[in-house]
Amino acid sequence: ASKQAQLMEVLKKEVRAMLIAAKAGLTPEQLEEQYMAMVCKPLPLRDLGFQSTLELVTQMPEVVRICSKNGTVILKAIADDSTKGIAELVANQKVRTRKASKKTATKANAIFPTKNSKNPQSSQTLSARTPVLPATMKAELQDLLSSSPLLLTDLGKAFLRRFGRAFQYRQYGFLSMFEVFRSMSDSIVVEQTKAGSLLVLRKYLASTIEQEEVPQAVSTAEMPPLEPICETESCLAAQLMDLKPVQTQAVDLGDHLKQHQDFGQFPSTAEIPPDAVQDRRLCSLPPLKRRRLVGVIVESVVSPSQFYVRICSTEASNKLEDLMFEMRHVYSHKVASDKYIMPESAVRPGQLCCVMVSKWWYRVIIHRVINEQEVEVFYADYGRLQIVQKSSLRFLKWHYLKLPAQAIPCSLAWVKPVEGTWSSAAILLFKHLCRFKEFVGIVDEYVDGVLYLFLCDTSTKKDVYFHSVLRDMGYADVCGENIPSQEFEELNPSALYVQPSAKQGNAEVVEPDLHLQQDSRDADSETATLMLDGAEL
């Protein structure tokens, strides 16, 4: 009984934190998904003697308010003294309209002090960020439209039939379907027809026009067709963002890794294709300039001192999506897939390869061999460790080496945990802050290959700085310097398996197209050093 009471108290705090972060509330099913994603285990219904999530929350009247909207049960949080601050932040989220979006696009201001200034007076404007779909979700929509155009009114049913779940675009911050496809205007066109709004792939549209102009032109290098997708499979975006993290620690790879540190070639055999990657590593992205503003998506979180981001730019997103589509086309063909099966001698730590998850193929590096059937791999483009079946691995084709690893190892700048290590509540809060949004990152510096940056959510009425939220909630101290990440010191797969960009030694640093305000992009480093919410430091 005492254990159940303790478990219930902990659960109340976790449920309150999750519901507070959801301004519109959550359905019981969404709460179950959020709990699995954040706490990495199912709701302990049986341990507490409950048959359903709804039955559980009815026993939390001081934590959960049960509402009904259009016949759907909605769960909302009841804030207590310790969470009122976060509740106010969420309540201040903007309700964006067409008029408001134009107005707010240039009015998200932030003042950041330098390390030598306690009361800076000048400021730099950050552009308000629009919602963003994960790359895998974009790929699924493009895949859905790859066979033929689709009426907007039929999209929901078609998406449900193909992927076995509803297209819940609102969880990514969008208010309507039109907003979703406006954000994907570079790849999907919305045409107005007598039957209604028609969704057409821009590539499909271009190929149709080309065929009309040159009717006898036929491609001799047509890619093999995609295998049909099981209607009950969930998307990889959900799996990569929500899968249960592996309890990984720094592994002493010993002589086994040292033996292969130089990634020497395997003994030549007729079974290994000549274009299979055997002795190469992916390169990292070129380093970002200090004090620059960048659009980022947080792809994977362990703690505020250990997380991975991906740079938001049209070019980078398109390249990653194109890579995903091409790999799926190639490896989904049984002949090609069988051709690149890896022999047991190739399954070793440090080996670059690819893995299939729900029909999508991803570039990974083998971190360690678990047993005869399983290995732990590192997703080079998403920054996540996961245990997978050896049978799902394939050699990576040389062609797929070109795109640098997209995941950047990061730590939140200028903060340290008040307790020496990050508490579970601090990590849970940070994960909520990071979830399914595009943020403004302010580059501070690189330490041992780890990018230290500030994160700011400009989608609210008042810009929200993550370091300030952690400090105000009593989870972090703002120390004005970057403490080396203990987590990355124990294990940094990027440092182990991804080689530094060739441009890192050059004076010129390549900046991605980040779609921030022109004056922010062009501001010199002296102006851009005005950082960190100085009024509250």
Automatic annotation (TrEMBL):
Keywords: Cytoplasm, Developmental protein, Differentiation, Repeat, Spermatogenesis. Residues 7-80, 129-204 form the HTH OST-type domain. One of its GO terms (biological process) is cell differentiation. It is found in: Cytoplasm. GO terms for cellular component: cytoplasm. InterPro entries: LOTUS-like, OST-HTH/LOTUS_dom, SNase_OB-fold_sf, Tudor, Tudor_domain_containing. Its main location: cytoplasm. SUPFAM superfamilies: Tudor/PWWP/MBT (SSF63748). Pfam families: OST-HTH, TUDOR. Residues 346-403 form the Tudor domain. Belongs to the TDRD5 family. PANTHER family: TUDOR DOMAIN CONTAINING PROTEIN, TUDOR DOMAIN-CONTAINING PROTEIN 5. This is Tudor domain-containing protein 5. It comes from Oxylabes madagascariensis (white-throated Oxylabes).
